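Supplementary Text 2. Reproducibility record for the structural model of the 442-residue chain.

All settings were left at their defaults, and a single model was retained for analysis rather than an ensemble. We include the record here because the model underlies the residue-level annotations in Supplementary Table 4.
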Amino acid sequence: SGESFTVIEEYGDTALERKYYEDLYSPIIDEHGAVIGLTLFLTDITERKKLEEERVKLQSQLLHAQKMESIGLLAGGVAHDFNNMLNVIIGYSQLAMRDVSLKDPLYMNLQEIMKAARRSADLTRRMLAFSSRQTVSPRVLELNEIVEGILNMLRRLIGEDINLAWLPYAGKLPINIDPTQVDQVLANLCVNARDAISGVGIITIETHSAAFDRAYCTDHPEIIPGEYVLLVVRDNGCGMEKEIVERIFEPFFTTKERGKGTGLGLATVYGIIKQNNGFIDVSSQPGQGTTFRIYLPRHTVNTGHVNEEGRAVSAVQGHETILMAEDEPAILDIGRLMLERMGYHVLTASTPGEAIRIAREHAGQINLLITDVVMPEMNGLELAKNIISLYPGIKRLFMSGYTGEVIAQYNILDEGTHFIQKPFSLEELNAKVRRALDTNEN
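Retained model, structure tokens:
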């Protein structure tokens, strides 16, 4: 006896269906032991095969999600050390540039150091965007308005040989997102589309409204039922094979020549979409172009007033007393130098315990506490509570080289809390310090 699988195409009620049968052959043997025939049994195993295929599909999706999450954790884990080191490089470079004449050849060298440091900081932010762990400031925005605001920049980005077509949805498409993230998504997708087009071509950007019910999401577990806005970026370039499509969102994976791309563009897009509870679909075939469909949750709750960034910060010298707590010695040193250059009187502490002791022993007023979020002994929020008990009117500014997801555990990113992400420049620190000191809230 033996068994095999047979696939038979049958017409069902409305269309051609694929049926799976299990074949079982049994010989018919006469009284002399000779085989005189066969008995064939066919068992319909279509449902079983479908369940097996679905299990394989779900397992593949799980392995893909686990791989992306692992890479994301790695990206987020190294960001803290990168941000601290870059903060030191940026800080000392800026201070040195202020002490050197513009005509001094050393000034040009320092400028190159600054450029490299800023590019490195941007690379770290892009890694964090992939890992869905960067700090963002979402606002309720109209998708069509965001896209229209970046069209001119995109046209300059892709060049004159490629036509950029804009097909907006006629209705409103409200979303809650950091507008710079939409810019990142469109810029990365358009650059990749440009590189996929040889000579003259066209890139089309469309917006639509979409909705998915529970029945649809049962067959598509990666989708959550609800209303979405749809952003489509389509090109008529060279297209991609299936094997490449399956890997395009992996960080550092690129089909471009060495030195032509970092492999982080589409990884950044993936991270931004995931961070905003959306999903992305890609369809592509060699010679037939590529289409990216991005679904973001439609904002349906009216939150009323949207917080703005705030008034312009004066560049005048400060005079207040600042207590700075930071467990990384290099950051503590450069922070003190930067603040003193702005005119502030600075008290420094390398541990929370030392900060509390200094606050108790200090004879005068302390106007602002600048503290790292994650430190030994106690975190920055706990330290702030201790300092407030000694100086009830003190203002607070929190800082961290850790990612948004990590520091969110400490409730540091609540509305109204002053926070600065490492690495920061002299101008950024000045702006954040003045905003914290000048606010009416404690």
